[in-house]
Amino acid sequence: MSADTPTPQFRGVLGWIDHRLPVVSLGYNHLVVYPTPKNLNYWWNFGSLAGIMLIIQIVTGIVLAMHYVPHADMAFDSVERIMRDVNYGWLLRYGHAVGASMFFIVVYIHMFRGLYYGSYKAPRELLWMIGVVILILMMATAFTGYVLPWGQMSFWAAVVIINLFGAIPLVGDTIVTWLMGGFAVDNATLQRFFSIHYLLPFTIVAMSFLHLVALHQFGSNNPVGIDLTKKDKINFHPYYTVKDVFGLFVFLTIYALFVFYAPLTFAHIENYEPANALVTPAHIVPDWYFMPFYAILASFTFDISIFGITLMDAKLAGVLAMFAAVLILFFLPWLDTSKVRSATYRPLYRIAFWVFVVVVLLLGYSGSQPAEGAWLLIGQITTFYYFFHFLVLLPLLGKIEKPLPVPESINKPVLPTASAGAQAQPAE
Amino acid sequence: MWKPLGAALLGATLLTHAPEVKAAGEADPLMSRSWSFTGIFGRYDQAALQRGLQVFETACATCHGLEFVAFRTLMDLGYTEDEVREFASRFWVEDGPDADGMMFERPADLPDRWPAPWANEVEAALIHGAVPIDLSLITKSRYGGANYVYSLLQGYDDEKTFELDPGNYWNRFYPGNVIGMAPPLFEGLVDFADGTEATVQQMAADVSHFLMWAAEPKLEERKRLGLGVILYTTAMAGIFYAMNRRLWANIKK
User: What's the CA gap between A314 and A302, in Å, rounded?
Assistant: First the structure.
């Protein structure tokens, strides 16, 4: 990587600083002359978009926190005050709330891109695993943030999610009390959630830096999925800075359409009623980005038993399955036994990938429906398939699949690009 | 591989889209109206807002609060500062403590928020049987928004399919069809300052318009700023698209 690029001698003030604190050459090596594959397509834009969303969320969040009051009696009022009396408060708040959804859309696309092109395979296993850590931190941040407006859905989401921990044998109830800071979701819960919600984004920043360190060790994967030589790479600046900024403005346009013209698209109307411990909403559902995992939780409507002895009740099984659905991603680099990275050269995996995408979308939709009848059944089938994909299909495909011939370099494709399929159009 | 999936999808579609049979007690689909505040160029209609305020004050405010609306914001409706000050002074708000440590009542002023029509929730429940909900956010906390309020206010008719307990009313748009609120609007209830005829439909439309403003007072500012932002981001996207194309032109394989 940067070792082959001679670092220029910086002169003047920059040189003086760089000699003592090599941040100038660090930035130069990793943002300017950083060698990047020249065949990246637009799916590779979502990494930088995720980084920018993180910054937008932190900046809007810090300003919101200057006006928000983390107290059970005042939180709801303070949010309305932000909406009405704080200069551009409505923009900060809608930007932050819609921003959470945008952040998840971007990160999910980023992850599916990694799945399609095998970006998690050696030597990028740790890069992928740090990404999964970031996803988990994002989920915790999103959940604690959703509770802060202290509306009906905030309150009841906190009640439902915290009580999931009650399924843990022996210590469950103790853990629930510990998490709530009392015997019910109340002011103590709200205050600790606020504290955690302010803390976690900075841990995401730290993990993002590790993510970049791991990325820059071997450089980006690419649509062909082969290791590239120096001549197939170009400087990050200006080629990818300009391309990323173009993608950024397209993304910001979509983001702005939601913030300014449909800010409540991802919101629950119940959250415009203040929290009330005595009135339970008809359907307590999490935000869309938790839906697939929520569907997995809800699909366990039966106790797991052998010969009439209950090994695990439905609630515990659902909770374990839900956590397993995320944690299984840590093992992906080893569950996928194929040495070929890009799905372009894996005819069977390519089908399995798109089936998996459909299954996750179906899971998500079934999670948004009351867990009964047809949607419960679809939720159960897709839950099964979710784990089947990781635990059976991926290990098996690597053994039985006959990959297409992989080109030796991106300048000499074995196949005409058109046969790579519509999903893998090269950018140029 | 695709066939069973297709069959499953088709099956799911058929199962979930079975013809709906309206059960007793189920709410009718809401009436809808074309509001001036919808769409990209949506604006509030000040005349409708002023009439809506009149309806709210006459028909709603005796039971319902509007706690997030400060009197000063009524200037958005096109009133002058003096008019709003005069309007606010008709309400009494609690203030204090004074030099003797006593709370006291005084006429409301511009910075005050619209006070609830009862001293506390216990009193409200005693008078009304249940606490009448605050209406500041009603159009954001109900499916259908302004259309919900608009429909509900016109949903009182005599097509009830079951007998009601005294103190309850039939409303075809209310979930469950049984509502505790007596019909609040009747022909000619309000004497509109602008001479508009006060039909139930007119009053329902105006007060819904007003309540949409009460829930989302920054709607016009939001939509106006949005135009500028989107013009900027699309222009910048265009510029960077062109720049990107030129830049990559000589990199092509």
Answer: 5
Provide the CB-side half-sphere exposure for A183 (13 A, CA): 0
- Whether residue A269 and residue B243 make contact (CB cut-off 8 A), yes or no, is no
pLDDT digits (tens, 9 = 90+) for B137-184: 999 999 999 999 999 999 998 777 778 888 889 999 998 889 999 999
8 Å CB contact between A83 and A93: yes
Q: Are A274 and A76 in contact (CB under 8 A)?
A: yes
A245 in the same domain as A110: yes
Q: Give the pLDDT confidence score for residue B251 in this predicted structure.
A: 83
For domain B46-69+114-216, give the CATH superfamily: Cytochrome c-like domain (1.10.760.10)
Do A113 and A214 sit in the same domain of this protein?
A: yes
CATH of the domain at A203: 1.20.810.10
pTM: 0.91
User: Of B8, B226, B244, which is closest to A261 when you measure between CB atoms?
Assistant: B226
With an 8 Å Cβ cutoff, is B11 touching chain A? yes
A window 5-64, beta carbon within 8 A of B:
38
Give how many domains chain A has, as a whole number. 2
Under an 8 A CB cutoff, do A242 and B247 touch?
yes
- Put simply, the answer to whether A242 touches B243 (Cβ < 8 Å) is yes
> Are residues A312 and A397 located together in one domain of the fold?
yes
ipTM over 0.85 threshold: yes
Burial (CB count within 10 angstroms: exposed 0-12, middle 13-18, buried 19+), residue A246: buried
| Contact (CB<8Å) B226/A259 | yes
* Boundaries of domain holding A387: 291-403
